Amino acid sequence: MSEPPVPGFFARFFLAFGVYFRFLFNKEFAGAVLRIGKGEIPAVAGGAHPMEVKPQAVAPILKEAPPDSALQLLGLLQQEGRFIDFIEEDVTRFSDADIGAAVRVVHEGCRKVLHDHITTEPVRKEQEGARVTLQAGFDASAIRLTGNVVGQPPFSGTLVHRGWRVKNITLPKLSEGHDVKVLAPAEIEL
User: What b/e string do you get for 130-169 counting C-beta neighbours within 10 Å, with b at 16 or more?
Assistant: First the structure.
């Protein structure tokens, strides 16, 4: 039988925090811990369990996404479509015609970046408005259910949006020391 893995500092910290409150508010748990401390019951895996163990929902493991690629893409959108300039502009002071003209420039540049660096495809092949049926085991990360969601699959509904997924992405290579946090350098005309 292999040894259980030794938890890291943060895992131990949160475990200690949780055990503290469980010890404080659950007298059966506190009694079992005291009996383990006195050696009355074994503290090793495989020993007798003084309490019923209830399975708890497992939280999904979250991984941190490195920001470099996202910042590089945002920089390309700014470079080609002036995306950040447009988003940061207070458009309330402009007429609809002026905003429309600006949107054409932003749209054209951003579309160029998308087509030059990212290949996309729809998540669903059916036309929007089509009736679809989702069987058990459908990919919940690729399909979001809306409306009156009750019960278990199969679900039948109307395809409101086909969704998008990235098929391929090819961002330019970055030179050593390039600061991706600088999305657009300041420009100074001499």
Answer: eeeeeeeeeeeeeeeeeeeeeeeeebeeebeeeeeeeeee
Q: Hey, which bits of the chain come out as E strands?
A: 118-122, 131-134, 155-158, 164-169
Q: pTM for this structure? A: 0.59
For residue 73, which amino acid is it?
L
Whether 3 has a pLDDT exceeding 80, the answer reads no
Pairing of strands 131-134, 118-122: unpaired
Residue 139, token pair as written in the block = 């990919």
pLDDT tens figures, 88-125: 999 999 999 999 999 999 999 999 999 999 999 999 99
User: Is 53 exposed, middle or buried, given 0-12, 13-18 or 19+ CB atoms closer than 10 A?
Assistant: exposed
Task: Please write down the long-range contacts of 178-181, taking CB distance under 8 Å and 24 or more positions apart.
Answer: 180/67, 180/68, 180/71, 180/72, 180/75, 181/71
Give me 189's structure tokens.
């005309």
